Structure formats: structure tokens, C-alpha cells
């Protein structure tokens, strides 16, 4: 994806905005990205991708990126919205580079919102 492509399609939050927020604020958990930018609070599709970008920034990667084209990303999201199932692409499945504490914090945040 390019930096100006939207990761959160519900709230139009770009990859650049997410990466810059992570670099500037250094959030210890992914749920703070959602709290500040609203990314991940709509359909939930982008949450694994937020985790991936967060992990890349925390690891010090110079150019955090998502290994998917914007068109493919939108196609997969449309399928997710209609079926509730994710394609296994190495990003959307599992922990996406995060840790168990991070996932527990995210789950607790969703439960509190729920």
C-alpha cells in the first residue's frame, strides 16, 4: 500500500496517519490507535493491519508497509463484510506481530465498548 491509502475504510484513516501517530505518540498497545484515530472501531476489518503497522513501527522499521494493493485490500474487506471470514494472508490471521498482552488489551477495550 502507499502511505496515503486508507487502512481504515470506515473512517478514512490512511497508513501515513497511523504510522505517524505511532511514531509520535509511541502507543504501548494497539487499542490506543483506535481510541485516538477511530481506526478499527467500525467494521473491525482493519484491526489486524493496525497491529501489523504498530509492530513494524515498534520494531523500528524505516518504511512500515502492508503487503497488499489497495484494490486487493478493498476486495478482501468486502468479502469480510459479507461473510465475516478473513482470507489467510499472513497479516489478517493470528496476532499479526503483536503480543498476548496487546491482544488482551484490545479484547478488553472491545468488551468495554460493547
Mean pLDDT: 83
| Strand-residue proportion | under 5%
Helix content: 40-55%
SSE string: EEHHHHH
Strand order of the largest sheet: 1-2
Low-confidence stretches: 92-114
By helix and strand content, what is the structural category? mainly alpha
Cα Rg: 13 Å
Separation of the first and last Cα atoms:
31 Å
Number of strands: 2
Number of domains: 1
Please outline the major beta sheet.
2 strands, antiparallel
The number of helical segments is: 5
Query: What general outline do the C-alpha atoms trace?
Result: globular
Features:
114 residues, mainly alpha, 5 helices, 2 strands, globular, disordered C terminus
What does this structure look like?
This protein is mainly α and 114 residues long. 51% of the residues lie in helices and 4% in strands. The chain has one domain (6-113). It contains five helices and two strands; from the N terminus they run E-E-H-H-H-H-H. A two-stranded antiparallel sheet has the order 1-2. Strand 1 and strand 2 (13-14) form a beta hairpin. Helix 1 crosses helix 3. It is globular. The relative contact order is 0.17.
Describe the secondary-structure layout:
Layout lengths: L5 E3 L4 E2 H11 L5 H7 L9 H12 L11 H14 L16 H14 L1
Antiparallel strand pairs: 1-2
The gist of it:
The chain is mostly helical.
